[in-house]
Amino acid sequence: MSQLLRAFVLGALLLGLPGCSWFGGDDEEEGPAPLMEFEPEGRLKAVWRARIGDGLGKRYTRIEPVVVRGTLYAADVYGVVEARELETGQLRWRTRVDVPAGSFLSSFAFWGRDDDDGSFVTGGLGADDFAVFLGTKDGALIALRANDGGELWRAQLSSEILAPTASDDARVYVMTGDGRLTALSRSDGSRLWSFDTQVPVLSLRGTSAPVVQGPLVFAGFANGRVVALRSDEGQVLWEHVVALPTGRSELERIADVDSSPLPTGVGVFVGSYQGAVKGLRIADGNPQWERPLSTHEALAEGYGDIYVTDENGSLYALDQVSGAVDWQQDGLARRGVTGPAVVSAYVAVGDAEGYVHLFAQSDGRPIARLRVDSAGVRDTPLGVGDRLVVLANDGRLVVYEFELRD
Q: What is the pLDDT of residues 357-376, one digit of tens each?
């Protein structure tokens, strides 16, 4: 079944389930938890602001900013890409990529943006010293020069690109919606190798982003597996089942690994929807611990913990060595929270109402909160040292610093 048809069927199923929340099992009639009452210990101060094109559209597309050597790259779903200095916000370059010629979307130029049909960028940014990479609904990967935004090359892949790329000195690694991980030449976009998996009938809209560490590339798939491959030739070194599909219906059997694997000095950590968060040994993929948690969001690390937001909006700090819960924050239930981001001594998440919440890494207590924009925040914030980068759904980009109260 095609990715487009699978998405349509899944949407129809979800619309036909009264009282079912897409990313949580609670009754939607409850609504989001009210904002927590607490005494702020400081404030998030905006260092600079900008607007990136027309934002992220209405299709639940996520295009998270990325920072490389002090340059912040961000894009919207209509092809606007910008490079700015992280410290000052100064614009280094701005460009607009076009709908790939001959694509399905290019033949429907009359579609307007009122219903979001004009969007075509679907893959979150990847970047390195050489290039900036973004993907499209029709499976085109576009490489732009990192220094001025000029186009380097385009490569046509097999399906929609929904996740950021990863790259090393020689290759770019791309995950497509049909369950295929492909390695392309970084210099010209030619295909080097690919790894295929069987995609279930139904899956979440999204894919795990590949992660490169030394000679290895890690990737998670919609069939509930995480795989470690040799980055040079795509040879599988190990494969581990993070979640097994269970239940009677296809909806109940969704077991996506949509959160990107997170390698650290302790192991590689991965989460799954309707499954578990696991700590695996990098050498052979054998499990070190398992914690039953359902998540489709990115993981983060800090203070010896792995930070996880589950499908209901709870934030967990799990010990990297044992998987024990060091603390749990339940104050954001049903608020549509993002994945966590570590910034300085804190961990931050955004929510569907446009708030950013800051918690202490040490014990999970709330530290500060502000509303970025009423349009909502679906992109996971980005922590870079003491800077927190937030891209709201409408394209508002804000870089914050945290200030303690006097």
A: 999 999 999 999 999 999 99
